[in-house]
Amino acid sequence: MTLSMANYVAVLFLLLSTQCFLSAHCRHFPSNQGAIGDAFDVLNYGAAGDGHTDDTQAFKDAWKATCKSSSSSPTMYVPHDKSFKLQPLTFSGEICKSNSITFQIDGHLVAPRDPHAWNTCDGSKCRQWIQFKKFGGLFIRGVGSINGQGSNWWKLSCKHDKIGLVVANSNNVHIDDLTFEDSPQMHIAFERSTNIEATNLTIIAPGNSPNTDGIHIQHSSNVSIAHSIISTGDDCVSIGDGSSHLNITNIFCGPGHGISIGSLGMKGRNEKVEFVHVNNVSFTETQNGVRIKTWQGGKGYARHIVFENIIFQGSHNPIVIDQYYCPHKHCKNKTLAVKISDVTYNHILGTSNGETAVAFSCSTSTPCKNIIMKDIHLGHVKHEKKTSSYCSNVRGTADPGVFPKVSCLQVDENV
Ligand SMILES: *[C@@H]1O[C@H](CO)[C@@H](O)[C@H](O)[C@H]1NC(C)=O
Ligand SMILES: *[C@@H]1O[C@H](CO)[C@@H](O)[C@H](O)[C@H]1NC(C)=O
Ligand SMILES: *[C@@H]1O[C@H](CO)[C@@H](O)[C@H](O)[C@H]1NC(C)=O
Ligand SMILES: *[C@@H]1O[C@H](CO)[C@@H](O)[C@H](O)[C@H]1NC(C)=O
Ligand SMILES: *[C@@H]1O[C@H](CO)[C@@H](O)[C@H](O)[C@H]1NC(C)=O
């Protein structure tokens, strides 16, 4: 069969309409990787991939081509078995043609090892290494790794602010399968974004590396974090102001500081978090477990929160609400407080490595309300020791079987 002229013109037009036609710089992406469309391989833009050469410019050029591509779903490709050293880099989806862009990262991205070798971004100090901003549809995935080489940063005494990877001002974001290692500070931050799914991630840093949170969520909604392993020196997941409708499911956490909501309300701020569902998490030797922390004098709320199906193995403070959060121990008591209400703890089992397995310090002016505890048993990791609870200014209910007994939980007449 031969192509009719009309069909031939149609096929030619189709080919010409993709950026890839006649371009030596791109190749079709293997369909078994799950990506459709055209792939822009960083090697074709001059990346060395030897772990030493600075490949930043090649990534910028490959990104420019990916962003300009008129393919409906272009892919920027980072091939496996290679390491790419990158300076701080921002990928902005703002002017891209496609609303469905994939970064297939099968190789390794590494930051400069020496903090002095980090260029500042665009002349000003940058707070992150790799940033994705203003995407309407973004897939970041692959079997590769993203290594912030943070060990030299951890030794610096001053507080710096260097996040491994930031996704900001974006919608419909998927991050899958990648490994994140040794960020200078928190590994991943989602900011001012909605509809995010992070699945099958591995996030690893030493348990004593300072401020290396796994995933931080801020001003973002409809976020799902699932099937992931997070072992770092700070919170596995931390949830900050303006976050709502979050599912955190099937997570292994430890070492680290647990899953934290807050701190909220620092310096009198009005901060809000609601509809958070933490389900099926196992905490191993974490400093805290499930924690809500707020500052005295703040406004706003943390409410509609469920922690369920949780297993603890030797965590120091498994269940914590702290309305007197004060990391530097010089905080004045104030009458205002971030309100905490409608928090359910259900089916939480295992062992604590501290005596106080449950600690609820709620404020006298703004007691915690509708705190519900069901099916909880937290013994001491050392069999000869006992666990107990601390509880002040809390309203709600605890089932009779809850252990340790949380005796100050009273029936709330207002509910
Ligand atoms: C999870 O990610 C790893 C690579 O890190 C990959 O080999 C594995 O197939 C992924 N699992 C699923 C269920 O996608
Ligand atoms: C969270 O889970 C609930 C119930 O399983 C589901 O209805 C909701 O869509 C999920 N939200 C996100 C952001 O995944
Ligand atoms: C977030 O999810 C909720 C419930 O599933 C839905 O009503 C809402 O429209 C979503 N928000 C955004 C910004 O997509
Ligand atoms: C709980 O999470 C673990 C670890 O991700 C997973 O293997 C297990 O299947 C999950 N359990 C349920 C009931 O979903
Ligand atoms: C603040 O109030 C709490 C609870 O009443 C109390 O334990 C704590 O000592 C007070 N702190 C200061 C600095 O007054």
From TrEMBL:
SUPFAM superfamilies: Pectin lyase-like (SSF51126). It catalyses: (1,4-alpha-D-galacturonosyl)n+m + H2O = (1,4-alpha-D-galacturonosyl)n + (1,4-alpha-D-galacturonosyl)m. PANTHER family: PTHR31375. Belongs to the glycosyl hydrolase 28 family. Transmembrane segments: none annotated. GO terms for molecular function: polygalacturonase activity. It comes from Citrus unshiu (Satsuma mandarin). This is endo-polygalacturonase.
